[in-house]
Specification:
The chain has 3 helices and 2 strands, in the order H-H-E-E-H. It has 50 residues and is an alpha+beta fold. The chain is globular, with a radius of gyration of 10 Å. Pfam families: MerR (PF00376).
Length: 50
């Protein structure tokens, strides 16, 4: 899933998600220029947001 859907499912802003990735708190797959998020990423975001 892309960042928009990951943001909706987790409640984290897109900016926060990018920051977590930049800080190395979350590993995200990439396909070309797009970030691809999986259920593990969503679970990790849910723990950080709440």
């Amino acid at each position: 899933m892309f960042i928009n859907q990951a943001s909706k499912l987790s409640g984290a802003t897109q900016r926060a998600i990018r920051l977590y990735e930049e800080l190395g708190l979350m590993k995200v797959s990439r396909t070309g220029k797009y970030r691809i998020y999986n259920q593990d990423n969503i679970n990790s975001l849910n723990m950080r947001v709440k």
